Automatic annotation (TrEMBL):
GO terms for biological process: 'de novo' IMP biosynthetic process. This is Phosphoribosylformylglycinamidine synthase subunit PurS. It is an enzyme of class 6 (ligase). Part of the phosphoribosylformylglycinamidine synthase complex involved in the purines biosynthetic pathway. Catalyzes the ATP-dependent conversion of formylglycinamide ribonucleotide (FGAR) and glutamine to yield formylglycinamidine ribonucleotide (FGAM) and glutamate. The FGAM synthase complex is composed of three subunits. PurQ produces an ammonia molecule by converting glutamine to glutamate. PurL transfers the ammonia molecule to FGAR to form FGAM in an ATP-dependent manner. One of its GO terms (cellular component) is cytoplasm. It comes from Auritidibacter ignavus. It catalyses: N(2)-formyl-N(1)-(5-phospho-beta-D-ribosyl)glycinamide + L-glutamine + ATP + H2O = 2-formamido-N(1)-(5-O-phospho-beta-D-ribosyl)acetamidine + L-glutamate + ADP + phosphate + H(+). GO terms for molecular function: ATP binding; phosphoribosylformylglycinamidine synthase activity. Its main location: cytoplasm. Pathway: Purine metabolism; IMP biosynthesis via de novo pathway; 5-amino-1-(5-phospho-D-ribosyl)imidazole from N(2)-formyl-N(1)-(5-phospho-D-ribosyl)glycinamide: step 1/2. The gene is purS. Pfam families: PurS.
Length: 89
């Protein structure tokens, strides 16, 4: 079943204590390659049939009006899920 992915992230000027906590813990598990971490949210919206431009526009609207808090978050991506990339990850 086709999926649309909506990614929501905190706005850059908003502090991210969860991301800071994760970044602080990474060296403890032997990972020191990253200088910072920002956490976000991913939503998957399922579509019956082929994904159309209207579906993508509706998904963006849902992201902006329902899935995110526009005061502190931005919708940073709305796209059709790439199942091949998910299987390889």
């Amino acid at each position: 079943m086709p999926r649309i992915v909506v990614d929501v992230m905190l706005k850059p000027e908003i502090l991210d204590p969860q991301g800071k906590a994760i970044a602080h813990q990474l060296p403890g598990i032997g990972i020191s390659d990253f200088s910072a971490v920002r956490q976000g949210k991913r939503f998957e919206l399922f579509v019956d049939g082929e994904v159309t431009e209207a579906h993508l526009q509706a998904a963006r609207r849902a992201g902006e009006e329902l899935l995110s808090n526009p005061v502190i978050e931005d919708v940073v991506n709305v796209s059709v899920a790439d199942d091949d990339a998910v299987e390889q990850a």
